[in-house]
Design a protein that fits this description.
Elements lengths: L1 H25 L3 H14 L6 H6 L4 E7 L4 H8 L4 E6 H5 L4 H4 L3 E5 L8 H8 L3 E7 L6 H17 L2 E8 L23 E4 L3 E2 H7 L6 H15 L6 H13 L4 E5 L3 E4 H18 L5 E4 L5 H12 L3 E4 L6 H10 L5
Parallel strand pairs: 1-4, 1-5, 2-3, 2-4, 10-11
Antiparallel strand pairs: 5-6, 5-7, 8-9
Helix pairs in contact: 1-2, 2-4, 7-8, 8-10, 9-10, 12-13
């Protein structure tokens, strides 16, 4: 009994000490830090860029990609305590989120209705902060795009800056909002928080005057946060390997009407067989011409070249002899 109490006391003390460290490291309130500690330890969260969000001058709108049920708890733990969080109805009623909702100000909204309101504009004009949780969509449907349009209008009326936030890895959590067949679940994936610098809608549009609309500028900025949270130094071959780890090596990756379907496992086996051959007849970093029809073979060749450290120079066989010859000469293709 005494040993059990001592262990519990040790755990509580460790929790408090880590909470104090997080409080001073990120500038959180002590209660915020305490409720953030379980996430930090369980998911080894890379959170250095959250300081950008905390230091953003009001009025500001934090646009969070809502991939799982954890984002509201994380943001309530990490964003300034005066932020008004606009939660979906499930997050606003969820019993397990109650301790985190007590950390800040929250209101619920019905995603079926566009939520532009004078109240939100007044909050921002009074040097306030909003946190909105928008669906994480590569290509938004009509309902999702209306939400982006509503946020754009609020930001423009209040002249508020936009701070996109993306939690990398949250898509594969057990509480993910993405169907399991599209995002295989993992209990404790490593998470990283991607935050971009604050910018107004006018500044976003000024970067690309050819934008179709102000809403498109906001959507593209949110997509940038998703891209920023990706390790672009990994390369295509390693990214494919990571995808195989997530969905399973037996998952089908390519298919054509002649060769049939290939799983990740078969793709990598074929790629390495070809890769060894490429290594034997070409130099590292050399451009190798690939002129094949759109079938499994072209993907195997491309992956094999990438795995052997060669550059795949894709040649369009429909371009005609003169264009193909000119391309080969320009790229100094010997193989």
């Amino acid at each position: 009994m005494i040993l059990t109490l001592a262990l519990l006391a040790g755990l509580v003390l460790a929790w408090l000490l880590i909470g104090v460290a997080e409080k001073f490291r990120l500038g959180l309130r002590f209660t915020q830090a305490l409720l953030y500690v379980p996430f930090k330890l369980a998911y080894r969260i890379g959170d250095s860029r959250i300081r950008i969000a905390r230091k953003a001058q009001a009025p500001v709108i934090y646009v969070i990609s809502h991939q799982s049920r954890f984002e509201p708890a994380l943001m309530l733990s990490l964003l300034p305590e005066d932020t008004l969080h606009i939660l979906d109805e499930v997050s606003a009623r969820s019993p397990w989120l109650e301790p985190w909702r007590e950390l800040g100000r929250t209101i619920a909204f019905n995603a079926e209705h566009v939520f532009v309101s004078r109240r939100l504009v007044r909050v921002l004009k009074g040097k306030g902060r909003l946190a909105v949780y928008l669906p994480d969509a590569v290509e938004p449907d009509v309902k999702t795009f209306r939400l982006f349009r509503a946020v754009t209008r609020i930001a423009m009326q209040a002249d508020a800056k936009i701070v996109p936030i993306f939690v990398g890895g949250a898509r594969g959590l057990p509480v993910s909002l993405t169907p399991a067949d599209k995002a295989p679940r993992h209990w404790f994936p490593q998470l990283s928080i991607s935050v971009l610098e604050p910018m107004t809608i006018a500044e976003l549009v000024a970067r690309n005057p050819d934008q179709a609309s102000n809403t498109n500028a906001l959507f593209d900025r949110v997509a940038e946060a998703r891209l920023f949270g990706t390790n672009l130094d990994r390369g295509l071959f390693l990214a494919m390997r990571d995808a195989a780890d997530r969905v399973g090596a037996s998952h089908t990756i390519i298919e054509d009407v002649i060769s049939g379907a290939l799983s990740y496992r078969k793709l990598f086996i074929g790629a390495r067989v070809l890769g060894r051959r490429f290594e034997a007849v070409t130099a590292p970093g050399e451009a190798v011409g690939v002129m094949l029809p759109n079938a499994n073979g072209v993907v195997l060749s491309l992956t094999g070249l990438l795995s052997s450290g060669r550059v795949a120079a894709m040649i369009n066989y429909t371009a005609g002899p003169a264009s193909v010859t000119a391309a080969v000469r320009s790229a100094v293709i010997r193989t």
